[in-house]
Task: inverse folding
């Protein structure tokens, strides 16, 4: 059975956002067509309590609100911070942890107390002094329950394990003996399976894509997600699908939309009147010719640095998409996604299709939307279905790529 999962999110406790109600999340999941959603921040004690109170286990290891069929998987992001030999700076890498039950969350909470780790924010740090200590921590977490899954999040972004800030040569430098317990990676918004498939460390691993959203908005939940094949919709089946690579396809941002895709400096930096963007070759020392400050190496160039051209990549299916609400706004030339007009069209379309996912994978958009939705919006939807869209300029230096739909027949 094919299900759509989005297994990385954050709650209001992750900072910078207000409270996000699970009811709102469930409502958006229905509109988008997401079957199972990562709760976010499940290790943070007030959040753990909130989840315990609000959710009921409906199938082994998955939870729902009362009288609701959308399912939640207990998930948190943690930041492992350690000092590796040969590296001047700390190595910092964001990770996802999935839990089979609340008991295993409580056990990790106790472990963190014992290790004297502050667990005071939605996305806590687990700090170690060296690789051996990190390895011990990873094994200790895994030992709580063999069904706990630990995986590196957004692997190529500046806070990802292989991102340009860490500048590691291989994930083995980080995981050591634990490397064999890493089955799966999250591609992140600035990379897709094609870019990652030629990197030796990743070539054999499962790749999933998640929204990493901090909001229940229609352009956030499910902006990236994964279709997996399971025999049953429960925690064990999902973890097995990840461990055995039963991924049908990932649905992704076009990497060019991601904020760290290319190397460059934006125009509002000191001494800049215009931006600098490198789409291929970058200066060896990464020094910006305008302001003489060091630039961050873009994900595209970082992937090129790591890839091995002799690898024959595994076939992986993936699709680039844009959230429907953004496509509608773009077709009308409206910038605010919350505009009444944009939302009215979205909900008109949801009268016709069960979910956004159903719309994207249907072949009768033209017939069904005709006379109910403006022709220019229908044309934009059809263009996105045909992947006729691009980003100019692409994302760089923390700025998202600028979407242009159509024109590439
Ligand atoms: Zn992260
Ligand atoms: Zn500069």
Result:
């Amino acid at each position: 059975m094919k299900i759509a999962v989005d297994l990385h999110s954050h709650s209001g406790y992750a900072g910078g956002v207000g409270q996000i109600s699970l009811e709102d999340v469930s409502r958006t999941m229905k509109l988008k067509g997401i079957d199972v959603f990562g709760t976010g921040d499940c290790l943070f004690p007030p959040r753990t309590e909130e989840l315990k109170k609000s959710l009921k286990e409906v199938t082994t290891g998955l939870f729902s609100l009362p009288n609701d069929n959308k399912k939640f998987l207990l998930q948190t992001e943690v930041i492992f911070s350690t000092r590796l030999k040969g590296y001047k700076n700390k190595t910092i890498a964001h990770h996802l942890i999935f839990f089979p039950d609340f008991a295993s969350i409580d056990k990790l909470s106790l472990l963190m107390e014992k290790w004297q780790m502050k667990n005071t924010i939605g996305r806590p740090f687990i700090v170690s002094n060296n690789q051996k200590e990190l390895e011990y921590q990873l094994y200790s977490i895994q030992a709580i329950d063999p069904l706990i899954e630990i995986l590196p999040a957004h692997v190529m972004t500046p806070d990802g394990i292989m991102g340009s800030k860490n500048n590691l040569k291989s994930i083995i430098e980080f995981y050591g003996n634990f490397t064999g317990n890493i089955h799966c990676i999250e591609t992140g918004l600035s990379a897709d399976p094609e870019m990652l498939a030629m990197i030796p460390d990743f070539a054999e691993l499962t790749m999933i894509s998640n929204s990493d959203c901090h909001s229940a908005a229609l352009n956030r939940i499910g902006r990236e997600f994964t279709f997996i094949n399971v025999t049953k919709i429960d925690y064990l089946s999902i973890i097995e699908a990840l461990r055995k690579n039963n991924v049908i396809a990932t649905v992704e941002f076009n990497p060019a939309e991601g904020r760290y895709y290319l190397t460059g400096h934006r125009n509002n930096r000191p001494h800049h009147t215009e931006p600098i963007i490198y789409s291929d070759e970058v200066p060896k020392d990464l020094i910006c010719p305008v302001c003489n400050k060091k630039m961050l190496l873009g994900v595209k160039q970082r992937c090129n640095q790591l890839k091995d051209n002799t690898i024959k990549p595994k076939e992986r299916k993936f699709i680039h998409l844009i959230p429907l609400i953004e496509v509608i706004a773009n077709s009308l030339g409206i910038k605010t996604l919350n505009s009444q007009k944009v939302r009215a069209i979205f909900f008109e379309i949801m009268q016709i299709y069960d979910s956004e996912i159903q719309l994207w994978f249907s072949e009768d958009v033209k017939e069904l939307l005709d006379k109910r939705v403006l022709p220019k919006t229908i044309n934009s939807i059809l263009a996105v279905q045909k992947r006729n869209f691009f980003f100019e300029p692409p994302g760089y230096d923390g700025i998202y790529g600028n979407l242009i739909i159509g024109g590439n027949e």
In short: The chain has three domains: 2-257, 263-296, 323-388. The CA atoms of residues 1 and 395 lie 36 Å apart. Residues 77, 94, 153-154, 159 surround zinc ion (ligand 1) (CB under 6 Å).
